[in-house]
Amino acid sequence: MALRICFLTAEMAPFAKAGGLADVSGALLRYLHAAGHDVRLFMPFHASIAALPLERHAVGFLAGIDARIGTRTYRYSVHTARLPGTDAFAYLVDCPEVFGGESIYTASPDEYRRYLLLTHAAFQCCQHMAFAPQILHANDWHTAVAPLWLRTIYRWDKLFAATRSVLTIHNLGYQGIVGAEAAPEVLGGADRMLLHQDELRAGQINLLRLGLLYADLLTTVSPSYAREIQGAEYGAGLDDTLRARSGALVGILNGVDYQEWDPRNDRLLPRHYGANQLGVKAALKEELLARLGLASGTRRPLVGMITRLAAQKGIDLLLEALPQMLATQDFSLAVLGSGDAAYERFFAGLARAHPGRVAFHQGYSEELAHWIEAGSDMFLMPSRYEPCGLNQMYSLRYGTVPIVRRTGGLADSVQPFDAGSGSGTGIVFNDYDPQAVRWALTTAFDLYRRPGTWRRLVQNGMSQDFSWQRRVQDYVAAYERLLA
Ligand code: ADP
Questions:
Q1: Total-model pTM
Q2: CB-based pocket (< 6 A), ligand 1
């Protein structure tokens, strides 16, 4: 059955990407559309998108529309833009006064208003297009108010009478907490009793919690994370609501876009390789070492990292573990990332202290990310929590052995290697503890010194398939269960 889906997202690759949400959004648009579903994806026309070479059209009948949020009225227009390489289009909500800034996200206290506008725009555009979605799919705190509005502000409209709502949690760590004075904007005239009363008494509204309370279906991006967030340790203060909605919560692992991330046809690499051409990978490693100013050496393992430098990513463990490991073990390290200044200083300091062995590239670089995936021997992801994580799955395909903490999507996508049976795809440690990181790295280095065993481990990983085609079927199945 072809489904009508209205999809709301703050970011979508390749138009605007800050993290995994963008990848999921782009993949769902691409594959749902390819499977014959009618997906109307709404996202902000971020200023950065205007500069991209996209096929883009202003939509004549979606121009100069007013949206009222609290006491203010915003006027927006809509463009459609083709997802490159497909015949799927996204709807870009154009309101320069709101989305005209340089970056996708801002630290402004007005941030939530931008996404209230996006959410209103999605409903209003459905009305203007006479598009009756069967599924209204919101993502993260930004658009988490949509399920509530479906039951309140837009309930009068028969267009939405059969619409069921879905909220996907890509990261519970970001919740969109606003002051209680935002209630009129958030509620748009609906009853204050619909808000979480304890929070309201504390002077707050948690937008993500509203989504958790009112969506018909909750999904998150791995089965393990779906379990973990129902407990206090990973629940980020929302575990009570998540436990209460346990029956409506499912985990669907993210997929990988192998058109972008496969060493057999990677556009950003000069040479390509599969599981039986590991000599090419070794040559790419040499080129990467030279490019990063690291000493050459095929016998010295190269550990790669590509990450937001945020506490979530387990960087605190590395502050303790890495200096000692570098002093006692022979390996090199290539880090690409940006984020917290203290972490950036740490890696910059490490690079200064170990010239020729540690390289730190501060910033965001798609191109260097592909090189690090291809040229590294191992990939380190010691996350404190990880809803899904993508780089460990990219690493598997690139023959770059993932060293991960057993949490969330890392636990679901990397199987611990067992040297006895030769099964497994990576090194997995349990405890959030520097000692565990040291154990994991040492274990990886020991295996690396046994070429036959190492090749087995590498090739096990390269044969894994985390393609989106299969995951998108999981989403469709979840939608269909909801509509049944
Ligand atoms: P999160 O969404 O929590 O940041 P994910 O692993 O789910 O983590 O997705 C992160 C995505 O962003 C990956 O595709 C990763 O390669 C990419 N990425 C993160 N930091 C950088 C960077 N500095 N340069 C290039 N790509 C990056």
A1: 0.93
A2: 19-20, 306-308, 336-338, 364-366, 369, 388-391
